[in-house]
Amino acid sequence: MLLRLCALTAACLLTACAAPAPLLVAEAGAYKVAKYEEDIRVRAAAALRDEPDLLTYSVGAISRGQTEEAVATYLKGYEAPDYSDNMKSLALYQIGLIYMNRFNDDRDDAKAREYFQLHRKEYPRSLLSGRIQKHLEILNERDQSAVKVSATELLNDVNRQILLERPNVAYDDELNPMSERAIAENRTEEAEAVYLIVYENEASGAEIRAKALYQLGLIYMSPYNKSSDRMKALSYFRKIHEEFPDVSIREKVDLRITELLNAQ
Questions:
Q1: How many angstroms separate the CA atoms of 162 and 14, rounded?
Q2: Which residue in 95, 98, 93 sits closest to 132, CA to CA?
Q3: CB-based contacts of 182, cutoff 8 Å, min separation 6
Q4: What is the rounded CA–CA span in Å between residue 223 and residue 229?
Q5: I need a surface site. Which of 2, 141, 200, 257 has the fewest CB within 10 A?
Q6: Which pTM does this prediction carry?
Q7: How far apart are CA 247 and CA 226, in angstroms?
Q8: DSSP code per residue over 28-84
């Protein structure tokens, strides 16, 4: 939208005409919209840099001021009787991460601690237990500090240009942000653990479970992944083919299988 308005302005200048007032107002409005969206991207990048374990949905909630909505959504999963313990564990973990993130205007360390402790009580043998303990230690260290810096103050000090820069890598168009992050930051194992939790939770539904496997296939077949594994990617795609014959991505899966077989 902004580029289109700029082009119209340039056309007026080239024809020696004065830009009408409505156009100037429109340009100002478009600039504000672009600035607002850029601020969201900066906050999202800063939040993610601060806490790599945040899921894409959690990052979006922090960057757009939707903490309570995200918490309510995660709590629905936590309270759902047909959700697996792994999914419920992940939901509590994400709530804690959202509340404790330094770039969240709705940061609340007390609530973060509450959800982490609830996690430890209900899922003491969870794979996330070690991470929960580390985050509780961070919260304890914060309590000892007399200096409290707001999210706004922190954002004023970040390097916006660096945060806005994306790696100059031609990732597969079908990789979602979480999967791209796993490849860029060499966090394949962590991403695999999360996607498998989703896959193993039957209450997630066939579409979501299949798409979780699809992302794993894409991650492992990426040439930019230090942990790339063609056979592992193929196994995930074949798993979709065998277990979810009626999902919407079935044709894409078949194409990926063909692509990998032809690459032998």
A1: 35
A2: 93
A3: 188, 190, 191, 219, 225
A4: 9
A5: 141
A6: 0.74
A7: 30
A8: HHHHHHHHHHHHHHHHHHHHHHH-TT--HHHHHHHHTT-HHHHHHHHHHHHH-TTS-
121 near 92, Cβ under 8 Å? no
Burial degree of 210 (CB within 10 A; 0-12, 13-18, 19+): buried
- The structure tokens listed for 86 are 């792994």
Task: Return the residue matching tokens 């580029």.
Answer: 3
Cα distances (angstroms) measured from residue 209 to each of 29, 213, 220, 244: 41, 7, 17, 9
Residue with tokens 């930019």: 224
Matching residue, tokens 């890598």: 169
Output the CA torsion 128→132→134→140 (10° steps): 180
